[in-house]
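re: that chain from earlier
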Amino acid sequence: MRLAEGEADRIAEFLGVPVRDFIADSTELLPGRDALGIRSLPTGECIFLDGRNVCRIQPVKPRQCRGFPNAWRFPGWRDVCEAVEVPAS
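^ sequence. v structure.
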């Protein structure tokens, strides 16, 4: 999950850890090597997802997460996501 500018700082503050520790422990360089993203588990799930529906950083989760799946869709997203689709306005 790509982190936009300032999001690492907000998440680190929410977790009560120095931003450098959050970056070292919870992020990875994305394949394009142009941004950081939240580290995933070997299963592909976010490291901040507890169980199937609980985000441990819900109040400060990245913009890309907040828009899922309605802001970005992929074939079969309904099969893997329990989010409720919001009709386009």
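The CA atoms of residues 45 and 57 lie 14 Å apart.
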